[in-house]
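Anyone able to model this chain together with pyridoxal-5'-phosphate?
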Amino acid sequence: MSQEILINVRKNLFEITPYAPGKPISDVKREFGLTDVTKLASNENPLGPSKRAQQAILEALQEVNRYPDGGAVLLKEALSDAVGIPTQQILIGNGSDDLIKLTSETFLNPGDEIVVPSPSFSQYWFGAKLMDAKTVAVPLTSNFEYDLDAMLAAVTTKTKILFLCSPNNPTGTYIREEALQRFLDLVPSHVLVILDEAYNEYVTEADYAQGIDFLKRGYNVLVMRTFSKMYGLAGLRLGYVFGPMEVLDAINRAREPFNANMLAQVGAVAALTDLEHVEASRIQNRAGFDQLQSGLSKLGYTVVPSQGNFLIFDTGLDDRALFDALLREGVIVRGGTALGIPGYLRVSIGLAEENERFLGAFEKVVSSIGQKV
Ligand SMILES: *Cc1c(COP(=O)(O)O)cnc(C)c1O
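re: yes, here you go
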């Protein structure tokens, strides 16, 4: 592109590397001439979307000539009933990615700072970069637990937002109730704490810190959730955030009027009522975790305990070579190098036959790539 055309582009945009999504099934089929590909790379619900949601979406199709409800009234009411907070404390996004970006646009000026755990979800960094703010990354401990004291120590007068992801993507580790309580009591009041709970619905541990409990007790926290993971509606794009009214009112000013589409809203309302789908997904996920853990353990690998619908483990090998070799076997996972944990693989928990296929393919490619170190 010529210099004149580029002249007004903000410099920070050139420092943004595009998000690297899980490789699409269609790409892998085409590249390797495969007909049957298993994708365990984007933490999608392998049971598919709720049947109730599908039915509601079909019915709503006839109305897509109309604009969606920009205020998402029915969805907010359904969420309000489900969690017991007023609708004014809920904001809807085009995925929680949208809400991360909106929050960044609302609060960050050039030179401001955000504090994030590392490794974690890359969109926090993206939001900061977009606004020309600085990301301060605080490493998790050696067993991928949160170091909340280190995160507190990373806060400066310039810190505007501090992100916590629990369960954390890509590690699956989570923050305990007591630890969050202590942290929120110590964090300075000029810092907005955001809890990204994209995998909240999968959690089975009793000491998991529920962000919403802290919001109800008056803490200045935002709690972000999504319909993309357990609810199986990733393709529709629907996320939501709970928070203090004044904070959400500010973020709402940066929001596009129709940021959540009609089918997503309708599907989400229906999915919330489909408790059977939720329960089946949770049970399937735990069984899938156990299956992958025991299969990998038999091969000599130790899995990091995960409360999400994915797990990581150290392969002791070059994850990029493993990733490529697995693609040739028709299995898509995520390589750790791209996620900040070289040598690891992140595997989304699939159906029993998908997990089996991964285990078989992994065993095969490991023996071809080299001995475990
Ligand atoms: C998948 C994911 C999200 C969000 O997804 P949307 O599809 O944009 O709602 C947010 N945070 C984390 C940590 C995720 O893994």
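Residues 43, 95-97, 121, 165, 169, 196, 198, 226, 228-229, 234, 239 surround pyridoxal-5'-phosphate (CB under 6 Å).
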